């Protein structure tokens, strides 16, 4: 849920973004009233901004309200993947899904979240929370833990300080337990999510590392929950991560720290 805006400190552009940010993967059409309430933007201002967003194409009128417009899809299609990461990883993501029969994902870190930048789905398994462009907390996902395990201490500290939100009964919410798990990931080069981000699903992830062992991204597979079954896919996921790392263009690697 987006954070409500403060009328005295936010510009019209920020308020317009706040309105768009109300929409989620399971949101269809929203009324002016619902948009105003969820965003914290005054209703009169919401009316004006919605008209402008409709004129520009960011929103479209529906039967019971407004929905996101095709103009946003057009712009989103123009956004390049992070430094060529998606293009380099895509063949291996497809192979991983084909070999395992599971949904394969590619994600990068953004603040204290992961953002899904590629997904190859299987018709037999619907994984709605890993939609393209979707985000989840680093600490509650195998992808996030794979990245965190090879991040600096400041990044881990920031995740802990932000609060380890509980998504399911299995989510790690104790900082000491999270740090122990990250140490295990560093040893094994594989991370697990056993119903930690969503009930009924497991995820196995491996970090995509630069030559200096920085986590550039992470790759995973997702399937029905079973701890023993999850571990069967560890080698395939780790192998895909190694192959993607070798295929990355130089611009996808993090810059060398200055001396």
UniProtKB/TrEMBL annotation:
**Gene Ontology process terms (BP):** negative regulation of DNA-templated transcription
Alphabetically ordered keywords of this record: DNA-binding, Transcription, Transcription regulation
Query: One Pfam family for this entry, by name?
Result: HTH_IclR
All residue ranges annotated as the HTH iclR-type domain in the record: 10-77
- Keyword Thylakoid annotated: no
**Is Transcription one of the keywords?**
yes
Annotated IclR-ED domain ranges read 71-250
Q: Return the protein name.
A: DNA-binding IclR family transcriptional regulator
């Amino acid at each position: 849920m987006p954070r409500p805006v403060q009328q005295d400190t936010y510009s019209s552009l920020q308020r317009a973004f706040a309105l768009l940010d109300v929409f989620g993967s399971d949101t269809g059409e929203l009324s002016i009233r619902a948009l105003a309430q969820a965003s914290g933007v005054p209703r009169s201002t919401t009316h004006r901004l919605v008209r402008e967003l409709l004129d520009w194409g960011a929103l479209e009128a529906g039967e019971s309200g407004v929905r996101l417009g095709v103009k946003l899809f057009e712009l989103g299609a123009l956004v390049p993947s992070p430094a060529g990461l998606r293009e380099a990883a895509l063949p291996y993501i497809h192979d991983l899904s084909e070999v395992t029969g599971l949904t394969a994902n590619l994600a990068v870190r953004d603040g204290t979240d992961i953002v899904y930048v590629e997904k190859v789905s299987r018709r037999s398994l619907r994984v709605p929370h890993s939609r393209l462009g979707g985000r989840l907390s680093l600490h509650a996902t195998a992808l996030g833990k794979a990245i965190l395990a090879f991040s600096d201490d400041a990044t881990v500290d920031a995740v802990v300080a932000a609060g380890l939100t509980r998504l399911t009964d299995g989510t790690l919410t104790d900082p000491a337990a999270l740090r122990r798990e990250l140490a295990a990931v560093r040893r094994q080069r594989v991370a697990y999510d056993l119903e930690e981000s969503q009930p009924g699903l497991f995820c196995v992830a491996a970090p995509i590392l630069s030559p200096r062992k920085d986590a550039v991204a992470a790759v995973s597979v997702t399937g029905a929950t079973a701890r023993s079954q999850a571990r069967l896919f560890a080698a395939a996921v780790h192998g895909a991560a190694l192959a993607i790392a070798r295929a990355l263009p130089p611009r996808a690697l993090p810059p060398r720290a200055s001396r």
